């Protein structure tokens, strides 16, 4: 992929392209190479004297960055360092991240990004992305046109109401779209100029932020109902007008709005909700991978969810779709494999307090308030934690699962790490090393009875970058369930015996670009098969996908 920087101030023509020169170039993160500019480039671009005389290679610059990174005493300081690097030299930033993905993902994404969001206004250095507030109502298209890049392909947007498991962070939630889009580039090679993070500021219910002088969002209560919907509708229409080929990824909207907003746009615009559909794909991929250990088919197992919000229902819906597709079951029979416990207890038909999105999973069964009692009654082969509440998978619960199953599937998917339903060490210890474990945030390796386990992380970053790349590759007009099924299946297929031997049901993070490329091919294939693709199918789809992937190496100016 290539992308044009749009500016006319203080530029020097080099061939057919105009570049900023002098200090303007050094302050432009897209083109800045810092000490890597060659002597000839420094002369041509007016950089003589603005840089120390020694020319560094990119590898030497990476060495400098990592040396300082390792000297930091906290992950939040490391986050600030990386964002500062991104602000001054994007190419070097992505080189550092791609070369050290296992180290960098927990900093740029969960769990550290959660703390970064909580303190966003206090660690703020330089604006990134677009902030669209209620004050912009009626002029949102005009605001979008202020963005310097016209060919935007991926937009990640949040209204900040349900950031990870941390609640309403208002505009401080901007750290999530920024972090997600950095992973679109690092994991799938989508050029950073094609990525746009957006926060919709519709107020906040966070009492601390309403009183915080460094909170820079609207210090007003959140709007609800028709007023909220009108604002979001205007935003969607404006994106459709200004950025015609973009994907809209909805991120961290609260349950009260998430399902409604998604359902209103998913069949009209190229869009998806990562908390509902992205989480579903990565979780279902984990379930598919677990079959290599537990045996049987998807339909042979019974799944009990702790939590019936966006993530839980999203996983359930895609799991049902997958069971129907792979095992030929009816919709009702497939739903009978999925059970949910919410904050009040088991989701059953006798309850009159169920939200619409839960009713499909309300079975004809006695009401049970206790999760462990539900396990004993239903006898699931897998428990999937999406509650947002820490340590809900207690020792008695996990031990009960171990008594019922030779290889109990224990997915503690709530983010960040502090919200996980149990730790990897607890899952392996309480099941005598027999658990098939995955978590939403990373856990370190742990040893039980002489064997070291490397727990798999059911991280959405395995899915959404590949989805985005695949949609771009075929220029899909919509993103449907078949694409998410294809992405889950592709991810599961890339789990190799060496991964399983380590206790890991996801590929190693070091293979992320390879994984994302394979998912992109599967998604694009799906787009062509379902007639959702607008681009003509290339003769070699694999080569086409790989040709679109950005590589963060410096370009030569002379």
Describe the protein in words.
The chain is α/β, with parallel strands linked by helices and 558 residues long. It has 3 domains: 11-98, Hemocyanin, N-terminal domain (Up-down Bundle), CATH 1.20.1370.30; 99-269, Malic enzyme, N-terminal domain (Rossmann fold, 3-Layer(aba) Sandwich), CATH 3.40.50.10380; 277-459, NAD(P)-binding Rossmann-like Domain (Rossmann fold, 3-Layer(aba) Sandwich), CATH 3.40.50. The protein has 23 helices and 16 strands. A hairpin with a 2-residue loop joins strand 1 and strand 2 (17-20). The chain starts with 10 loop residues before the first strand and ends in an 11-residue tail after the last helix.
Secondary structure elements and pairings:
Elements: E1 11-14, E2 17-20, H1 22-26, H2 39-44, H3 58-71, H4 75-88, H5 90-99, H6 101-108, H7 112-118, E3 130-133, H8 140-144, E4 154-158, H9 175-188, E5 195-201, H10 207-211, H11 225-242, E6 247-250, H12 255-265, E7 271-273, H13 274-294, E8 303-306, H14 310-327, H15 331-335, E9 338-342, E10 345-346, H16 371-378, E11 382-385, H17 395-404, E12 409-412, H18 424-430, E13 436-439, E14 446-448, E15 451-453, E16 456-457, H19 464-474, H20 481-493, H21 497-501, H22 512-529, H23 541-547
Parallel strand pairs: 3-5, 4-5, 4-6, 6-7, 8-9, 8-11, 11-12, 12-13, 13-16
Antiparallel strand pairs: 1-2, 9-10, 14-15
Helix pairs in contact: 4-5, 4-7, 5-6, 5-9, 9-19, 13-14, 13-20, 16-17, 19-22, 20-22, 22-23
């Amino acid at each position: 992929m290539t992308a044009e920087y749009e500016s006319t101030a203080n530029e020097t023509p080099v061939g057919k392209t105009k570049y900023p020169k002098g200090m303007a170039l050094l302050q432009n993160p897209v083109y800045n190479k810092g000490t890597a500019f060659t002597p000839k480039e420094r002369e041509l671009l007016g950089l003589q004297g603005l840089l120390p005389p020694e020319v560094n290679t990119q590898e030497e610059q990476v060495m400098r960055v990592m040396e300082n990174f390792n000297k930091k005493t906290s992950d939040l300081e490391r986050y600030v360092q990386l964002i500062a690097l991104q602000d001054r030299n994007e190419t070097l930033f992505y080189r550092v991240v791609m070369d050290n993905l296992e180290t960098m993902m927990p900093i740029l994404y969960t769990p550290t990004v959660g703390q970064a969001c909580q303190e966003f206004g206090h660690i703020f250095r330089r604006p990134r992305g677009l902030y669209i507030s209620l004050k912009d109502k009626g002029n949102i298209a005009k605001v979008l046109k202020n963005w310097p890049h016209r060919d935007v392909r991926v937009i990640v947007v949040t209204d900040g109401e349900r950031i990870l498991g941390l609640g309403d962070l208002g505009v401080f939630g901007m750290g999530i779209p920024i972090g997600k889009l950095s992973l679109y580039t690092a994991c799938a090679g989508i050029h950073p100029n094609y990525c746009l993070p957006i926060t919709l500021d519709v107020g906040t219910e966070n009492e601390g932020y309403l009183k915080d002088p460094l909170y820079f969002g609207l210090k007003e209560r959140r709007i609800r109902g028709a007023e909220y919907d009108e604002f979001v509708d205007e935003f969607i229409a404006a994106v459709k007008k200004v950025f015609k080929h973009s994907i809209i990824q909805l991120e961290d909207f609260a349950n009260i709005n998430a399902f409604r907003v998604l359902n209103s746009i998913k069949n009209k615009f190229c869009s998806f909700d990562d908390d509902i559909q992205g989480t579903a794909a990565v979780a279902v991929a984990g379930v598919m991978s677990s079959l290599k250990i537990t045996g049987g088919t998807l339909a042979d197992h019974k799944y009990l969810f702790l939590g019936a919000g966006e993530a839980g229902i999203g996983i359930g819906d895609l799991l049902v779709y997958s069971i129907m597709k792979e095992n030929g079951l009816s919709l009702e029979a497939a739903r009978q494999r999925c059970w949910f416990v919410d904050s009040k207890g088991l989701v059953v038909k006798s309850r009159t307090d169920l939200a619409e999105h839960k009713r499909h999973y309300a079975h004809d069964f006695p009401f049970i308030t206790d999760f462990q009692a539900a396990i004993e009654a239903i006898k699931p082969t897998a428990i999937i934690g999406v509650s947002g509440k820490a340590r809900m998978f207690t020792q008695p619960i996990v031990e009960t699962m171990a008594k019922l199953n030779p290889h109990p599937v224990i997915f503690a998917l709530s983010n960040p790490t502090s919200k996980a339903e149990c730790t990897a060490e607890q899952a392996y210890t309480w099941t005598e090393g027999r658990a098939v474990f995955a978590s939403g945030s990373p856990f370190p390796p742990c040893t039980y009875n002489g064997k070291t386990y490397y727990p798999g992380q059911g991280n959405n970053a395995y899915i959404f970058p590949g989805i985005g790349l695949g949609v771009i590759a075929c220029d899909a007009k919509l993103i449907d369930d078949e694409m998410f099924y294809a992405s889950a299946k592709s991810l599961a297929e890339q789990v190799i015996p060496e991964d399983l031997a380590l206790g890991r049901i996801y590929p190693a993070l070091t293979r992320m670009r390879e994984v994302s490329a394979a998912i992109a091919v599967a998604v694009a294939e799906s787009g062509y098969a379902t007639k959702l693709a607008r681009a003509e199918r290339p003769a070699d789809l694999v080569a086409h996908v790989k040709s679109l992937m950005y590589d963060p190496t410096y370009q030569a100016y002379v």
